[in-house]
Specification:
Structural class: alpha+beta
CATH topology of the domain at 49-133 and 166-194: Immunoglobulin-like
Strand content: 25-35%
CATH architecture of the domain at 49-133 and 166-194: Sandwich
Oligomer: single chain
Distance between the termini: 191 Å
């Protein structure tokens, strides 16, 4: 009996030791899982990786000489890099980098004096989290026309010169190269119609209203009054009697 009791006691001691050894290991695994939870920095990076930009034009149909304001807001990009605003029509191209405020808003006003009347295309480009514009214009400014990949300096297309594309075709081409050049840039696009000013001294057209034609009912000859008819018959009878007596 003593041997059996000693064996059972030995087994019990071994079980207790196993529990003591296993419990710290389990606690360590749990702590490790908690340490792997995403931090605020990780979440911020994930949000920053998906920039978004929106913009509006102050007028859809301005007249040459009227100021035009392009404004909007960007989120998730690199605010310090600003945004790049493209305005183009025909062989006219204007590309400028515009600063972005701390709250993500931006605005730029353009003087349209001297702009040719046309449909103008506006692209507002966000450089993405890396703060670098992957698509740009060679020698940015008015009437410069070579669009390049700024990372490789590869010519992508021309706004002017041989083989150039313009207007709607240029807008489509610019969309394609921003989407397919492997960068993180995003953009939004707009249009406005710049109209020619009115010629001085030209009278404004006057709206005239033509009165509707009225149908006049046909007139009918009213019958002679009864008295006039009777008098005519009487005179005719007297004349007949007079001529009979003469004969």
């Amino acid at each position: 009996m003593k041997k059996q009791f000693s064996f059972g006691l030995t087994v019990l001691v071994l079980l207790l030791l196993a529990v003591v050894i296993v419990l710290p290991v389990s606690a360590e695994v749990t702590v490790g899982s908690s340490a792997a939870a995403p931090t605020s920095t990780t979440l911020a990076s994930a949000t920053q990786a998906k920039p978004f930009i929106s913009a509006t034009v102050s007028s859809q149909t301005p007249t040459v000489g009227d100021p035009i304001t392009v404004s909007g807001v960007e989120t998730g990009g690199n605010v310090s890099a600003g945004v790049q605003i493209w305005i183009f029509a025909g062989n006219y191209i204007n590309v400028q980098t515009v600063p972005v405020n701390a709250d993500g808003t931006f605005s730029r006003t353009y003087n349209t004096t001297g702009y040719p009347p046309a449909t103008y295309y506006v692209f507002v480009q966000n450089p993405g989290p890396d703060g670098m514009f992957n698509i740009g214009v060679q020698g940015s400014g008015i009437y410069s026309g070579q669009v390049v990949n700024t990372q490789t300096n590869t010519l992508l297309f021309n706004f002017t010169g041989t083989g150039s594309v313009q207007d709607a075709a240029a807008a489509q081409k610019l969309s394609d190269v921003i989407n397919t050049q492997g960068g993180d840039d995003v953009y939004t696009k707009l249009t406005f119609q710049l109209e020619a000013p009115a010629v001085p001294g030209t009278p404004a057209p006057v709206a005239t209203t033509v009165a509707p034609l009225t149908t006049v009912p046909p007139t009918t000859k009213s019958p002679l009054p009864l008295e006039a008819t009777f008098g005519a018959v009487a005179i005719g009878g007297l004349c007949a009697v007079f001529f009979v007596r003469r004969s």
